[in-house]
């Protein structure tokens, strides 16, 4: 059976590598190279290459499961399972009101699913209590980007700009492991004579590629960025003309930076003054330069201010909104970008509109055919929502996240989940969280359904169905359609992704993330379109002038033919603020929420390894990946290990105020002696999130995954 290959994209990370899928006799697919997608040009990491393994029937769910009277999950019919969910959610709503029903989504959901989930929460359930795992991901960068630029799109330029820039500072990104095919953009940068600076407390595979590696103490990136800005000012490297023409708020930001003397910053960060000076020299010498952040500086209780400080550095040196220069955030999940634009976030409506903006409410309510006053207001953020389970929130519908493994202070979150009156989970596998549910619905996977995702570049992409799903599974859209009907809403929840996308276009029209000029046909023909891409009635000649607020033409062919070209590069003429100027944010350093002390003298930071993805729900089911990364570990510097009396492979207990985790020691000089590192991909004894601190950033509500105080103990085995 040699069917033609279907061009599509990887189910996992935000790079959204292109791949071709060919059906195989066993009902799964074979992955082959798809060279026409410019981001990865055929290259894939091990996770993408092995993704078909999760399509196999022996690892995935193929029947709904319901909890029987004895408390065991047993197979059930779709009707029974859906009836039980409608009854469970409906009971809570009747007894405790709509806000007692919670919804938790994920950045892995396609735009169509994320949009429908947000609409389902607000229109069908009438609850304000919806948020998603993206809160744990890039929310600090998003908040800082909106403050400074008036708009949040992960990268404001395509990845292909990176090799042509003069210098790139990568702050807390280990992309050699988290987005391996993207490493080529950085090696090309170096081949072209550009400089790569990596800032990470560990000498990672990414740091090994750098011309300069700074290894600050975790949680001190804010001080580091302020120290660099101090030197920029002191050395007369401020681009005064740019600051005057394109920014606002410089004086306050300048004054704040001046208080951060290099020697003071050295004491806080552990990065020496000569290293700071060298960084400034390398960053300022070339004509263009970029700062890219990932989870290192963002997953902190001051992540928003920290990213703000890096943006300030870009603005002061004229390195934003200019060719080959700018600040960008490396978004993480497959649809981490689109997932934050279309309404599954607590405070948000489709098109990146604000839920508390009356005009936005009116626009979206009209598209949805409901009264604007019927839309609830903003709800709790992800951790706060999870923390309220079993008390204010009594029932939960969870789609595409596994918080038992991935949420901070996970033992507490697990206990909160167990205390719910009712939990329904839609997943492709029986994740650790699904295993606690009253009803589990098995859903279709990436190769079995069509939908769009928006990559870290802000490029909207079409994922195509390549095979028929097995009997017994349904798509998330079908689930929401069926539940809506059972809860009394017959219309407005289509199951055809393209029909949903057509509605999303209208809902997003005129919003910051405007998709109204994008059609499935364009996505197929153009290999993706960068938003904003408004619908236009006339062919566009030079950019924004021809944009109209006119309703979309009815004929999709005309829409496609008259399309806006999309926006690969943002801010070149103006920023997305009312006056077009970027805003400096005055920020000052502050400590992490939990500094080490006598009882908990060591810092713990957490992150990823190349062969596992997130909570591991999918990748821990793939033999090849498990062979490469079989379990958790604790990275410890040789000096710290010697003090502890631990040898390579010895089980080590890591104890924080939240709990205790045990994993084998991995002794390496690649980490700071005051810090240990654990990957968070595993449940059970070695679960890193048993330890992490849910201290939240006041703006983004991001938990402090990247720094908390722990002590180490040896374990007798
Ligand atoms: N293999 C794999 N790839 C993935 C994922 C996965 O789970 N596995 N997940 C995807 C998702 S959703 C995301 S969000 C991305 C994340 O991608 P990354 O942000 O690259 O991943 P992390 O490993 O969480 O963190 C990056 C680095 O931050 C460093 N770090 C820790 N604390 C600090 C600090 O205080 N300051 C600084 N500057 N650095 C610090 C860590 O040592 C680590 O090397 O990866 C995506 N790709
Ligand atoms: N300590 C620590 N904790 C962290 C982080 C860290 O750096 N350190 N990083 C945080 C970050 S950045 C993130 S993004 C989170 C991620 O953590 P999670 O939210 O747990 O992410 P996943 O493990 O990807 O969970 C996705 C689940 O949805 C299922 N799934 C996949 N596709 C679909 C679909 O289309 N529909 C449905 N219904 N289900 C689907 C998968 O099988 C899986 O069970 O973890 C956070 N937790
Ligand atoms: S880098 Fe990301 S998108 Fe590319 S193959 Fe790996 S997991 Fe998939
Ligand atoms: Mo993420």
TrEMBL record:
Keywords: 4Fe-4S, Iron, Iron-sulfur, Metal-binding. Residues 3-59 form the 4Fe-4S Mo/W bis-MGD-type domain. PANTHER family: NADH-QUINONE OXIDOREDUCTASE SUBUNIT G (PTHR43105:SF10), RESPIRATORY NITRATE REDUCTASE (PTHR43105). This is 4Fe-4S Mo/W bis-MGD-type domain-containing protein. It comes from Streptomyces levis. The lineage of its organism: Bacteria, Bacillati, Actinomycetota, Actinomycetes, Kitasatosporales.
């Amino acid at each position: 059976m040699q069917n033609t290959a279907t061009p599509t994209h990887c189910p996992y990370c935000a790079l959204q590598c292109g791949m071709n899928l060919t059906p195989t006799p066993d009902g799964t697919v074979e992955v082959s190279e798809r060279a026409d997608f410019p981001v990865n040009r055929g290259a894939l990491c091990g996770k993408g290459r092995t993704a078909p393994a999760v399509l196999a029937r022996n690892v995935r769910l193929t029947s709904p499961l319901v909890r029987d009277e004895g408390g065991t999950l047993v197979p059930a019919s779709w009707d029974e399972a859906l009836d039980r969910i409608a009854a469970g959610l409906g009971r809570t709503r009747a007894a405790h009101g709509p806000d007692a029903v919670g919804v938790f989504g994920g950045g892995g959901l396609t735009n169509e699913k994320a949009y429908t989930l947000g609409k389902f929460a607000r229109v069908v359930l009438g609850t304000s209590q919806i948020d998603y795992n993206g809160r744990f991901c890039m929310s600090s960068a998003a908040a800082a980007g909106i403050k400074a630029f008036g708009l949040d799109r992960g990268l404001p330029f395509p990845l292909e700009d990176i090799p042509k820039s003069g210098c790139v500072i990568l702050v807390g990104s280990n992309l050699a492991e988290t987005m391996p095919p993207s490493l080529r953009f950085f090696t090309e940068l170096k081949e072209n004579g550009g400089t790569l600076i990596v800032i990470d407390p560990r000498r990672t595979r990414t740091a090994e590629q750098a011309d300069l590696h700074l290894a600050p103490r975790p949680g001190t990136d804010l001080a580091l960025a302020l120290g660099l800005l101090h030197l920029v000012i002191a050395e007369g490297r401020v681009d005064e003309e740019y600051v005057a023409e394109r920014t606002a708020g410089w004086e306050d930001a300048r004054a704040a930076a001046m208080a951060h003397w290099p020697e003071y910053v050295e004491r806080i960060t552990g990065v020496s003054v000569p290293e700071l000076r060298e960084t400034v020299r390398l960053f300022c010498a070339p004509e263009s330069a970029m700062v890219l952040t990932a989870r290192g500086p963002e997953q902190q209780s001051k992540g928003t201010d920290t990213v703000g400080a890096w943006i300030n550095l870009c603005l002061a040196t004229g390195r934003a909104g200019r060719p080959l220069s700018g600040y960008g955030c490396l978004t993480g999940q497959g649809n981490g970008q689109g997932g934050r634009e279309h309404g599954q976030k607590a405070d948000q409506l489709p098109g990146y509109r604000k839920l508390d903006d009356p005009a936005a409410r009116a626009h979206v309510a009209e598209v949805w055919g409901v009264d604007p006053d019927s839309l609830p207001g903003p709800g709790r953020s992800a951790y706060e929502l999870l923390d309220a389970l079993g008390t204010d929130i009594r029932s939960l519908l969870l789609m595409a996240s596994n918080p038992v493994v991935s949420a901070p202070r996970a033992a507490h979150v697990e206990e909160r989940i167990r205390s719910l009156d009712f939990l329904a989970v839609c997943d492709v596998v029986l994740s650790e969280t699904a295993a606690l549910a009253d009803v589990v619905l098995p859903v279709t996977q990436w190769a079995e359904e069509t939908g769009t995702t928006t990559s870290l570049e802000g490029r909207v992409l079409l994922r195509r169905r390549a095979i028929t799903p097995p009997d017994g599974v349904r798509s998330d859209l079908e689930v929401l359609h069926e539940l809506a009907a059972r809860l009394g809403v017959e219309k407005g929840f289509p199951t055809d992704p393209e029909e949903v996308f057509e509605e999303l276009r209208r809902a997003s029209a005129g919003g910051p993330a405007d998709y109204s000029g994008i059609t499935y046909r364009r996505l197929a023909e153009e290999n993706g379109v960068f938003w904003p891409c408004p619908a236009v009635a006339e062919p566009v000649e030079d950019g924004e002038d021809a944009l109209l607020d006119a309703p979309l033409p009815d004929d999709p062919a005309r829409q496609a033919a008259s399309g806006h070209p999309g926006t690969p590069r943002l801010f070149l003429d103006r920023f997305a603020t009312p006056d077009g100027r970027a805003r400096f944010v005055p920020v000052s350093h502050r400590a992490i929420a939990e500094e080490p002390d006598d009882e908990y003298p060591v810092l713990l930071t957490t992150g990823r390894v190349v062969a596992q993805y997130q909570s591991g729900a999918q990748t821990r089911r793939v033999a090849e990946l498990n062979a490469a990364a079989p379990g958790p570990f604790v990275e410890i510097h040789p000096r710290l290990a010697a003090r502890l009396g631990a040898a390579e492979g010895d089980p080590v207990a890591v104890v924080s105020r939240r709990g205790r985790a045990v994993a084998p020691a991995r002794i390496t000089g690649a980490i700071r002696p005051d810090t240990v590192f654990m990957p968070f991909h595993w449940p059970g004894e070695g679960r890193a999130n048993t330890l992490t601190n849910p201290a939240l950033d006041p703006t983004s509500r991001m938990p402090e995954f990247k720094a908390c105080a722990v002590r180490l103990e040896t374990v007798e085995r």
